């Protein structure tokens, strides 16, 4: 059953509460500056019953003023000349279950990518003991029936497996037959239920490739998008296939030493033109999610103009970065010590963001993938 608790919004226009931590004393390029304590009950386990009923913290990044609103208020909060930047990547059912054919020991995997020419998949692998080259894994479907074999071909430098399915079928077809939606581990230990097939997918998802949802987009419904376009807002769709790196905390102290994970992204000519036209008419470019930010910022020229672009995105945005292609950001509340929290802090200021998170916890906002959102303008 989906969560339907909707506390009344606080009066608009309140100033940020003073945080219990002296953030100003911290180094914005040290990962410890992006740590915070979150009560476990604030981690959303289910989406709200109606996507647009999620709560929305509106943060003015210049004045620090906040409002407590709802996603459904976006038509009131945004301007007719604004453009929303949407990541239309679709989450693939990348979580795999099966067993080692020879020993029958249980095996779990996460599909990461495949080579269309060779048919070889790269997967994260979890099992007891070491898998040998040439060994096979028997995949099982949702009814635990035996299915296709995966032959272990090699290991990558970072320890992932390269496997080849023993079947004449495309990766997408096999994943639909044998895969599960790969929920983050903080959602009831990555449960596997059919309801998440729909709820962990944006309504505008179009291109298979992500192993995690671009979660800010989960708040939109088709009626809400219709309301926004009828008001005069424009939509620009980009694609960034979200990789497994989005789940991982930053492992180094000094942010300047962090190596960002790489993801495939693309912007077509129509989306680029829509965003260029937005600037020309004085509108704002509002990125829906950090993946949309990284896509347009990777593609933008120094003056902020865009053209069609396809490439690998490894852009790590931290304080000091000069944003070229966005004027606002709609985003969820992110994990401590994550590159996503660092990006949001680069956009609005670390001290302001950490104080806003403190305010969100005090006001019982719901955090992470199925949680509430903030609009930073």
UniProtKB/TrEMBL annotation:
GO terms for molecular function: S-adenosylmethionine:tRNA ribosyltransferase-isomerase activity. Pfam families: Queuosine_synth. Its EC number is 2.4.99.17. It is an enzyme of class 2 (transferase). Keywords: Cytoplasm, Glycosyltransferase, Isomerase, Queuosine biosynthesis, S-adenosyl-L-methionine, Transferase. The keyword S-adenosyl-L-methionine applies. Transfers and isomerizes the ribose moiety from AdoMet to the 7-aminomethyl group of 7-deazaguanine (preQ1-tRNA) to give epoxyqueuosine (oQ-tRNA). Belongs to the QueA family. This is S-adenosylmethionine:tRNA ribosyltransferase-isomerase.
């Amino acid at each position: 059953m989906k969560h339907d608790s909707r506390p009344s919004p606080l009066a608009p226009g309140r100033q940020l509460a003073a945080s219990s931590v002296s953030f100003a004393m911290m180094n914005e390029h040290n990962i410890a500056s992006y740590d915070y304590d979150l009560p476990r009950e604030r981690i959303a386990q289910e989406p709200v019953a109606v996507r647009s009923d999620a709560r929305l913290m509106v943060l003015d990044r210049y004045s620090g003023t906040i409002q407590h609103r709802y996603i459904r208020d976006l038509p009131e909060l945004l301007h007719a000349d604004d453009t929303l930047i949407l990541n239309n990547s679709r989450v693939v059912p990348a979580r795999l279950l099966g067993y080692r054919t020879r020993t029958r020991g249980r095996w779990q995997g996460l599909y990461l990518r495949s080579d269309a020419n060779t048919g070889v998949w790269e997967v994260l692998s979890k099992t007891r003991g070491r898998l040998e080259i040439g060994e096979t894994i028997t995949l099982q479907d949702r009814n635990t029936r035996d299915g296709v074999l995966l032959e272990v071909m090699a290991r990558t430098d970072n320890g992932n497996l390269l496997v080849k399915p023993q079947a004449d079928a495309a990766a997408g077809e096999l994943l639909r037959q044998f895969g599960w939606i790969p929920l983050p581990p903080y959602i009831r230990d990555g449960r596997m239920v059919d309801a998440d097939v729909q709820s962990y997918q944006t309504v505008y998802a179009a291109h298979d490739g992500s192993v995690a949802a671009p979660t800010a987009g989960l708040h939109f419904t088709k009626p809400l998008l219709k309301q926004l376009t009828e008001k005069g807002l424009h939509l620009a769709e980009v694609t960034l296939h979200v990789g497994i790196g989005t789940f991982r905390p930053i492992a180094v102290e000094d942010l300047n030493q962090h190596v960002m994970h790489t993801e495939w992204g693309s912007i077509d000519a129509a989306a680029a033109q829509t965003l260029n036209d937005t600037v020309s008419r004085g509108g704002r470019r509002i990125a829906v999610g950090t993946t949309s930010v990284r896509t347009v910022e990777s593609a933008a020229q120094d003056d902020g103009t865009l053209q069609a672009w396809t490439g690998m995105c490894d852009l790590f945005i931290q304080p000091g970065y000069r944003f070229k292609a966005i004027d606002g950001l709609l985003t969820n509340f992110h994990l401590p010590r994550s590159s996503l929290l660092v990006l949001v802090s680069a956009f609005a200021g670390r001290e302001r963001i950490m104080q806003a998170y403190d305010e969100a916890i005090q006001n019982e906002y719901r955090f992470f993938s199925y949680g509430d959102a903030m609009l930073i303008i």
